[in-house]
Amino acid sequence: MTAQKRGYSREFPIDQTRRIKREIDWVPPALDRSLRAKCKREGLSLRVVTLRLWTEWLSLKDDSGSVSPR
User: Fold this and answer.
1) Which of 6, 19, 33, 66 could bridge 45 with an S-S bond, Cβ 3.0-4.6 Å?
2) What DSSP string describes 1-70?
3) pTM of the predicted structure, to 2 decimals
């Protein structure tokens, strides 16, 4: 049985002219297993979860009280 591949989210469309690949080295195995299991249960791709985290983090206020630009 083959796992169904999750498609890209409309929330984060792919620009066909330019794409940048980011990788994270040496993720702890327990964290990776938990993350992948939760993504699978919720029907989300790891890409969407990661991009949402980055988007939310960029919108947080910094120490000076100003909002980080998007």
Assistant:
1) 6
2) -PPPPPPPPTTS---TT-----------HHHHHHHHHHHHHHT--HHHHHHHHHHHHHHSB-TTSPBPP-
3) 0.67
